[in-house]
Amino acid sequence: MPTPNPTVAFVGVGRMGANMARRLHEKAFHVTAVFDAHRPLAEALAAELGCAAPDKLRAVSESADTILTVVTDDAAMRRIYSIGGSPDGDALLTAEGDVQNKLFINCATVSPRIHLEVEAAVVGRGGFVLEACMASSIPQARDGTLYLMCAGEERAFQRAEPVLRALGSTVRYLGRSGNAAKVKALVNMVMNINTAGLAEGLGLGAALGLDLTMLREVFAETGAGSRVLQTDGEDMQNRAHDCYFSAAHAAKDSGIALALAERAGLNLPLAAATKAQYDRMVAAGFGELDKSGIAELTFPGRGRSAGG
Amino acid sequence: MPTPNPTVAFVGVGRMGANMARRLHEKAFHVTAVFDAHRPLAEALAAELGCAAPDKLRAVSESADTILTVVTDDAAMRRIYSIGGSPDGDALLTAEGDVQNKLFINCATVSPRIHLEVEAAVVGRGGFVLEACMASSIPQARDGTLYLMCAGEERAFQRAEPVLRALGSTVRYLGRSGNAAKVKALVNMVMNINTAGLAEGLGLGAALGLDLTMLREVFAETGAGSRVLQTDGEDMQNRAHDCYFSAAHAAKDSGIALALAERAGLNLPLAAATKAQYDRMVAAGFGELDKSGIAELTFPGRGRSAGG
């Protein structure tokens, strides 16, 4: 007799992945196993949720109907799926492993072409695969209010829907594999540009002696208004850069978008200037500040004292 | 017996100034005179409103209690107020002219220090002066729904209020002279950055074969959302660049902000990259397109064919 919800396992249980696992556990999904390259993370979460923390990826894919991956970058995706590597090493997909009818949902922000490579590998072994990029952050993962941009075969999307609806308040299907990563890269590219631009506007406002609370109000009522003004404006003013979306992530995502632009032969000077700013933050050792920390580069008198 | 509304006169009756004059006329203000460096504009509007079109600025200030100026740049402001020039030439303020108790409302987007220079000159002759920068465009001028950012002496603001309330749906008092120009420069700087960034996001989306209507919807629901997405996104997609706020104006306003940043010793790479894009538009002959026309620089296959 089938369980009412599919069994689920996780690969990558940093703060995002762990909160998604907690959320599914709470919504009566059976979380069978969690895995992380940093083992203590997996062991702590396994103890919390009462599940396994196997030391082999193969054991993760064997343990559940649906495997969610939330890894950091293209290289990690290739490694866990054994793409371009040895087929005999430990991976979710192995030469002899059976992934018939299993569903893989990949939530990391990685290059669009990685999703196509993973799709080819999984579908070739009889499995289902969906990309589900997230345009939200850690609190939304815990609350099941993620914004999920999904792409892949429609049958994979349909099968994934119960899990997706438990994780997200908005679940959008954007077409074929790779599209969600493209849209996510564009969302973050534009978001990062707006963030860097807002930091310049507020920084110059501070230099001119203006009341920044008044300035933010005027921005909100005029053509300078933006979502990042709502989410990051006050934090920039108050130097409250606890991390929701790190500067290092912003630099990485801007890099994905710029690589896509380069292949398309497009010149995007704003995106390039924004990446250079986030790269400066990372180089100065502020990569783990929130993206709002870019204000530390533009406000008068902050400069290298950033981090407060 | 005083009239219920002050008499008003205008200097600078391009599309903004002319619409503001029409609006005040409609709201039962007596428009006494209109002036423009391009005389046919003034003559046509004078015929429409049944007022004078004197060929001397002195006659404009003599004709009304309140004089509104809507000129193009710092040089024009200096010229009409005879600042730094010959005191004997024709100007609103002249050596022998009496501006006792007259109110001057300056609506052009000019450098903050110009407002301080004008204030010193007007107040020194017994008059009142207010800056009233507009963060809106031509249709709002006609409808009396401008967003007005005002600065100057509080008594000048109070005296100006009946006129301001007839012109604007939002009237904000931002403190001492020059503050409104500073805030306006910052609003436009951030707006222009967001516009240039949006053009890059949609342009790259087009290059990647994404459905731009879908992409704009996702932007609106995520961290990429902004006011310019609402006002300019669809126009960028459809190449609808009829002018509300010209690229040439965007270049000028970005220049004002960058000059302020330079004096403050701030490095603002996003603002600089944005100005360079608008300067490219102007150099390519697209300066009179709307600011949304910046998409012509970033969408694949548009390039020099812009203007459609």
Brief account:
2 copies of one chain form a homodimer. Chain A is of the alpha/beta class.
Question: Mind explaining what this structure looks like?
Answer:
- The structure is a homodimer of 308-residue chains.
- Chain A has two domains: 8-177, 3-Layer(aba) Sandwich (Rossmann fold), CATH 3.40.50; 182-300, N-(1-d-carboxylethyl)-l-norvaline Dehydrogenase, domain 2 (Orthogonal Bundle), CATH 1.10.1040.
- The first copy, chain A, contains 13 helices and seven strands.
- Chain A has helices at residues 15-26, 39-49, 57-63, 74-80, 112-124, 138-143, 154-167, 179-207, 212-221, 227-238, 247-264, 269-283, 295-298, and strands at residues 8-11, 31-35, 66-69, 103-106, 128-134, 146-152, 168-173.
- A seven-stranded mixed sheet of chain A has the order 2-1-3-4-5-6-7, sandwiched between helices.
- In chain A, α9 (212-221) packs antiparallel against α10 (227-238) and α11 (247-264) runs antiparallel to α12.
- Mean pLDDT of chain A is 91; it is low at 304-308.
- At the A-B interface, α8, α9, α10, α11 and α12 of A face α8, α9, α10, α11 and α12 of B.
